[in-house]
Amino acid sequence: MAGFRSLARQVRDPSCDLALRRYSLRKCLERFAPYGHRATWDHLCSRAGFGPEDRSPDPARLVAALDELEEARSVWLTYEEEFAQRRKKEKHDGLRRPGSVDDWHRLTWGGFGVAWCDDPYVHPDEPLAEVLRRLIAALEREPGSVCPVCEGEHLTWKYDLAHEPSSGPVCTECGIVVPRPVLTREALANARRARARLLVSA
């Protein structure tokens, strides 16, 4: 099975058939897709200026989409490397019990679904790398009460998500499932109450 870098070379290779180049970009999302496969594809297509179903997109637009994906992947891999080094030091120092960030991180190793968007058509507008930088910054500071990506204040709890964990707080503004470790207990409780209010009003 081809790795991310091998697939990226095919996307950039002008000697490759255009259909193969598009297919290779889609396959890259099996290795790294911060919003999940479908939402990340929709995001990249939107930002690069070609349709998700376009079978013959401008090759330059394909490469632009790949550039954005690669930058975001570099940001995430750097974070994962620093995370692994920190855990190694903590274990050396006798801290064996992982925290809530570690539990969340274990579910997102490799970068798939780190900012999961359950609705593939609702996702942040900013470049992927910027979204990940904001998310990482939130993971490295004290928990807050708003979405770390868009600073949206409206979070609601959703169940039956198509990703692990299968339930959690979703930002109603940018669409991401907000990692629980970045939110205070009060913010998590408010998200659950917001869901309850929606159910009552329905």
Automatic annotation (TrEMBL):
Superkingdom, natural source: Bacteria
Protein name per UniProt: Uncharacterized protein
